[in-house]
Amino acid sequence: MKKRTPISKIMTTDVITLNHTHGLETAEKLFKEHNIRHIPVVSGDAIIGMLSYTDLLRISFADAVNVETNEVDTVVYEMFTIEQVMAKNLVSVSSTTTIKEVAEILSMREFHALPVIDHGKLVGIVTTTDLINFLLEQF
C-alpha cells in the first residue's frame, strides 16, 4: 500500500449536488436515483453544507417511516428546509490530501463523507465506502 497516495485517486469527481433552495423531496429523489448517501449543498459556487440520507431519516417521525422500504412520508419534508437539516460546519480536504490523512479524519469524526475542495471549488467527495473499497483492492 502506498503511504502518500492522494485522495484524488479514489474520490468521486462526478458529484451530485443540491442547491440550498431545493426541497427535501428532491434530495430524497437524488439519493435513491443515484444510490448515494451524501450530497453536498451549494449556494452558487460555494459549498455551504452536506446532507446525508441519514439526516432525512432523522427528521422523520417513527410512524412516518415505512421500516420495510426505508421510505419517509414526504409530509415531513414540508416542515423543514435543506438548510435546517444539513450539516453546516464542514470539514473539507484538498485533492492532494493523502488517503491516510482522510482515513484518520473520518475515523475520529461522526460523519462519513468529506467534500474535496481545491482553490475554493468543489472538485469531489470522498466517503468511508471509497476508503473501504480502496482497502479491499489492496488484498
Q: TL;DR of this structure?
A:
This protein has 139 residues and is an alpha+beta fold. It has 5 helices and 7 strands. It has one domain (7-137): CBS-domain (Roll).
Features:
139 residues; CBS-domain; 5 helices; 23% strand; Diverse_CBS-Domain; CBS domain-containing protein; CBS_dom
Question: What order do the helices and strands follow?
Answer: EHEEHEEHHEEH
Low-pLDDT runs of 5+ residues are none
Shape: globular
So, the CATH homologous superfamily?
CBS-domain
Strand content: 15-25%
The total count of helices amounts to 5
Looking at the overall shape, the CATH architecture is: Roll
The CATH topology label is: CBS-domain
- Percent range of helical residues: 25-40%
Please state how the strands of the largest beta sheet are arranged side by side. 1-2-3
The helix-and-strand class reads alpha+beta
Major sheet details: 3 strands, mixed
Task: Please tell me the overall pLDDT.
Answer: 88
How large, in whole angstroms, is the Cα Rg?
A: 16 Å
Q: In the residues, how many domains can be counted?
A: 1
Beta-strand segment tally: 7
Give an overview in words.
Keywords: CBS domain. The protein has 139 residues and is an alpha+beta fold. The chain has one domain: CBS-domain (Roll), CATH 3.10.580. The protein contains five helices and seven strands; from the N terminus they run βαββαββααββα. The protein has helices at 24-34, 53-59, 82-85, 99-108, 128-137, and strands spanning 18-19, 38-43, 46-52, 65-66, 71-72, 113-118, 121-127. The strands form three sheets. The protein has a three-stranded mixed beta sheet with strand order 1-2-3. Strands 4-5 form a two-stranded antiparallel ribbon. It starts with 17 loop residues before the first strand and ends with a helix. The mean pLDDT is 88.
